[in-house]
Amino acid sequence: MPVRFLTSFFTLILLFNSSLLLAESYAFISNQLEGNVAVIDLNSNQVIKSIAVEGKPVGVAVNHHLQQVYISTPEGAGFAVIDIDSLQVRKYVRVGGASVGIAVSPDGKRIFVADWYENTVSIFKSADLTLEKKITVGKSPSGVMVSPDNRWLYVANRMDDSISQIDLQTFRVRNTTKVGAHPFGISLDKKGIRLYAANVESNDVSVLSAKNLKRLAKVKVGGRPYAMTLALDETRLFVTNQDDNTISVIDTATLKEIKQITVGDKPEGISTHHDDRHVYVANWFDGTVSVIDAQSLRVVKTITTGEGSRAFGRFIY
Length: 317
Fold this sequence. Notes:
Layout: H1 3-23, E1 26-31, E2 36-41, E3 46-52, E4 59-63, E5 68-73, E6 78-83, E7 88-94, E8 99-104, E9 110-115, E10 120-125, E11 130-136, E12 141-146, E13 152-157, E14 162-167, E15 172-178, E16 183-188, E17 194-199, E18 204-209, E19 215-220, E20 225-231, E21 236-241, E22 246-251, E23 256-262, E24 267-272, E25 278-283, E26 288-293, E27 298-304, E28 312-313
Parallel strand pairs: 4-28
Antiparallel strand pairs: 1-2, 2-3, 4-5, 5-6, 6-7, 8-9, 9-10, 10-11, 12-13, 13-14, 14-15, 16-17, 17-18, 18-19, 20-21, 21-22, 22-23, 24-25, 25-26, 26-27
């Protein structure tokens, strides 16, 4: 068989596989006031489906290993499980009081749900959705993140102005550190070295050592920062400022704010596309998602999603 033919054949196979991957890339946007989750096809930046979810959906977490998405439901006292293949709710799981923050371990084996009223984090086995452990943390836990090695769980305790670090081998709180006023969203770098916390009432971001929660720095941002995401090989941190309708861009080398980008009304949830360049922002009061080019630092697309778009968590699949 001619070499040219083989090269062309394998090129076609690669292109075909790439197109399949693109077709399976979605953003899941919880519309709390509308009671559904809008699914954005990231290849076309179009909403392709709205999935009805009971219980006023807020938080989002994706599990690539099991091809599932988990949606926290504060008024449903738990979370919904969405199947990626069918884009339908497969099951509702009960947690307790009012679940808000939700996350998945990098290995896909555990689901973590923060209960705002009960001051706990519930840990579920993703394989069968059974409760493995419930851990008491600080007041009004919100953002949750797991370290890349699946060893540590980090929790933002909003009403305690603190971050807790939990050992996932012993299920014990190892450290609790005071940060700014009312931390909500948190973000962790890929190597598990730095942890960032958005402090809603003090209008700043705390930078901590993920190893021991040692306070490293504090960066002033806009009004009422809620959530964050890293982009451009983690050289930039993007922070949603609800009161200013802006995104603060922080240079992670200098830990200085370098720009504020105007988006929609009351931005909250924020996640980075797989290309590491485009940042998606859910605008709560606008019912839209703004797409930011992290290189040019401009909004390049606005997508209508639904009433009350919050999407708190990592919503890119």
